[in-house]
Structure formats: structure tokens, C-alpha cells
Design brief:
The protein is mainly alpha-helical. It is built from six helices and three strands, in the order H-E-E-E-H-H-H-H-H. The protein is globular.
């Protein structure tokens, strides 16, 4: 690690052409980790008033950002995910389930990124190879999230 700035450089990873690739991978994992930390932090700061309206402590109520809902006046497959994440960040699993049951799966994927990306960064920093999930496992997870989102949406349309 560069002593002057405290962040990695290609020289930190040996300075060769391969070091630049490792640095790119390190930055990728650091970016994903940062995004996940930001999402979880924002979810912990926000509140859900009455199970419907998202609010921020200082700013008050926040506007609805869902273009689908604005255009069609109907819920989309992802409706309730923000509120679900907020409920889970506040340890209210029951409320999260009512808001969007698929959100529990999505939230767990985001939460999983914290230790996974941390380990990846540590492995790269120490000259070890990254842990790789199988393509099948990643594909199954992506399809599970998509199916869960559309399944809960279809059930809500019928109700």
C-alpha cells in the first residue's frame, strides 16, 4: 500500500502488467463493497412512515421515484424493495415481508457482499487468487431473484 495516500497502486501489487489487472480487480471489489455499504447505511438512516411513505430524519418525506408507478399508477415487480430494505435495516422482518417478500433475498445478497468483497480485497492484497463462484451458482441466484420479484408481483396483482 502506498504510504503517502493510503490507497493501492499498481506498484503495491508488484508493478508489472499483471499488477495493473490485479489493481483493477481490487478497485472493482472495493467499488461493490462501497456501494453495498452505502445502500445499507442509507437504509438504516431512512424511515418508513405507516408502511407507505419513505422519510429522512432531517428532510422529511421523500418523493416516489418509481417511474412505473408514476406512469401506470400500479406497482411494479420491484415496488416495496426500498421500504423492505429500510425495514430489514431496522430489524423488522415481518414488515419487510409484507412490503416485498423477494426483498429478503435481494437484501441477503447485498449483505453477503460485505464479507465476500472484504475477503476478496484481502486475498488480492496478499497476492492470493480471488475466490470464484461457479457460473451456475451465479446464474441460479440471478434467476431466483428475478423469479421471486415477478412471483410476488403476480401474487399481489391477483390479490
Amino acid at each position: 500500500m502506498s504510504a503517502a495516500v493510503g490507497k493501492p497502486t499498481a506498484a503495491s501489487f508488484g508493478g508489472s502488467g499483471g499488477a495493473a489487472a490485479v489493481l483493477r480487480r481490487w478497485r472493482f471489489h472495493a467499488l461493490i463493497l462501497s456501494i453495498c455499504l452505502a445502500v445499507l447505511t442509507v437504509a438504516a438512516v431512512l424511515n418508513v412512515d405507516g408502511g407507505v411513505q419513505v422519510s429522512m430524519p432531517v428532510l422529511g418525506e421523500l418523493p416516489v421515484f418509481c417511474l412505473w408507478r408514476r406512469a401506470l399508477a400500479a406497482d411494479c415487480p420491484g415496488c416495496g424493495l426500498t421500504r423492505c430494505f429500510i425495514a430489514l435495516a431496522h430489524a423488522d422482518v415481518g414488515q419487510a415481508w409484507r412490503l416485498n417478500p423477494a426483498g429478503l433475498l435481494v437484501f441477503s445478497v447485498v449483505l453477503y457482499q460485505l464479507p465476500f468483497r472484504g475477503v476478496q480485497l484481502w486475498r488480492l492484497w496478499h497476492g492470493k487468487t480471488e475466490f470464484q463462484h461457479s457460473r451456475l451458482a451465479v446464474t441460479v441466484l440471478i434467476w431466483a431473484v428475478i423469479i421471486a420479484l415477478f412471483a410476488q408481483w403476480a401474487v399481489r396483482l391477483v390479490d
